[in-house]
Amino acid sequence: MPKKITPQKSDGSKAFVQTRVRHDDDVFGELAVDVFQTADEIVVVSPVAGVQADDIAVSVTEGVLTISGSRGFEFNIDERDYVSKECFWGSFKRSIILPEYVDPAGIKATYKEGILTVRIPKVEPVKTRMVQIES
């Protein structure tokens, strides 16, 4: 079932981003993200502990930023032997619907000490242009 979260800006104006998680036939872990904006960019920050940078993919398609990857598990444990099982192992995916006023071509991603940071530059919003009607 899709999940949508619409964070609001502190001034109460309409939301600038929506996140969604899809659980179709494939099972994906939900990746926690913080999304905030500065004057020049939107920033997505996500803790991705136990994952190498090469095991994370960041893509943008039709205004949707997707972070996906896989966290491997090194032990072969029988399910009956678990006392507690809170960690997610396997594939994860998170999609974030971006606003129209960003530049997808300028996106940059960094990964340091288990924290993925994606920076999306803002552009000037398209303004309405009046067209003169010729007679």
Give the topology.
Blueprint: E1 3-5, E2 18-21, E3 34-37, E4 41-47, E5 56-61, E6 64-71, E7 90-97, E8 108-112, E9 115-121
Antiparallel strand pairs: 1-2, 2-7, 3-4, 4-9, 5-6, 6-7, 8-9
Q: Could you explain the architecture of this structure?
A:
This protein is an all-beta fold and 135 residues long. It is elongated. It has strands spanning 3-5, 18-21, 34-37, 41-47, 56-61, 64-71, 90-97, 108-112, 115-121. The strands form 2 sheets. Strands 1-2-7-6-5 form a 5-stranded antiparallel sheet, with no helix packed on it. Mean pLDDT is 82; it is low at 1-16 and 19-25. The protein is built from no helices and 9 strands. β5 and β6 (64-71) form a beta hairpin.
